Amino acid sequence: MQESRTLDRRTFTLEAALAILSGVTITISGCGGSGYGGSPTTPTPTPAAGDKMGAISANHGHIAIITAAKLTTGGALSLDIRGSSDHTHTVDLSAAEIASIAANQQISKGSTSSTGGSYGDHAHTVTFN
């Protein structure tokens, strides 16, 4: 006869997460403000040929795209990642970081903090490539 094992919620959640994520590397940061939740209210745009789209931590509607023209031009860039969110953040990228992104190197950069909207005080990390 098989022995029954009872798990509390915390143990179950931890064991389930470990089973699901075994062998996967994940970086989680940003958006620790109260009221976090939800997803973008508009579909994520498809970048045009040559554009670079960044992955945004704890995202709730923000979009980070650097156009091919800006990548080609080079120079520093202050990228507004508002998207469909009810507040904005900017990500400041140096000319060297833009060149690295254009060369398909991975760059992760923190956004400015925001106190607006329904998500409280928070920031995001945007990763390109």
Account of the protein in words:
This protein is of the alpha+beta class and 129 residues long. The chain has one domain (30-128). The protein has three helices and six strands; from the N terminus they run αββαββαββ. The strands form two sheets. The chain has a four-stranded antiparallel β-sheet. The longest helix has 13 residues, at 9-21. The N and C termini lie far apart (52 Å).
Proportion of helical residues: 10-25%
Query: In what range is the share of β-strand residues?
Result: 15-25%
Mean pLDDT value: 78
Shape assignment: elongated
> If helices are DSSP runs of H or I spanning 4 or more residues, what is the number of helices?
3
Report a brief summary of the structure:
This protein is of the alpha+beta class. The protein has helices at residues 9-21, 68-73, 95-102; strands spanning 52-56, 64-66, 77-80, 90-93, 107-110, 125-128.
